[in-house]
Write a structure and sequence with these properties.
This protein has 90 residues and is mainly α. It contains 3 helices and no strands. It is 82% helix and 0% strand.
Length: 90
């Protein structure tokens, strides 16, 4: 792949990330009980989509397994964060 192709990929993936950030920003205007669930679902959908769009050179192994790992890591991070906030509140 030449330099132009790589630059095009970087621009396209940057637009994906920017779009996702804008959707999250809009979601943050919702009520609290709806907001967290929607952000979680958006993250899961984005993770599955984005890992399947990346070239095989970036993710040389099973993409579904990699998506599952990212979703698990996200859930585990959210668990740690909420338990930390719970501990600080006590």
């Amino acid at each position: 792949m030449d330099a132009t192709g790589i630059l095009l990929l970087v621009v396209v993936y940057s637009l994906y990330v920017l779009f996702f950030a804008l959707v999250i920003k809009i979601t943050l205007t919702l009520k609290r009980e709806d907001r967290n669930r929607i952000i979680d679902l958006l993250f899961i959908g984005f993770t599955i989509y984005f890992t399947h769009v990346l070239p095989k050179e970036v993710i040389p192994y099973d993409r579904i397994a990699f998506s599952g790992f990212l979703i698990f890591a996200y859930g585990f991070t959210m668990l740690l964060y909420r338990k930390f906030k719970e501990g600080v509140a006590e």
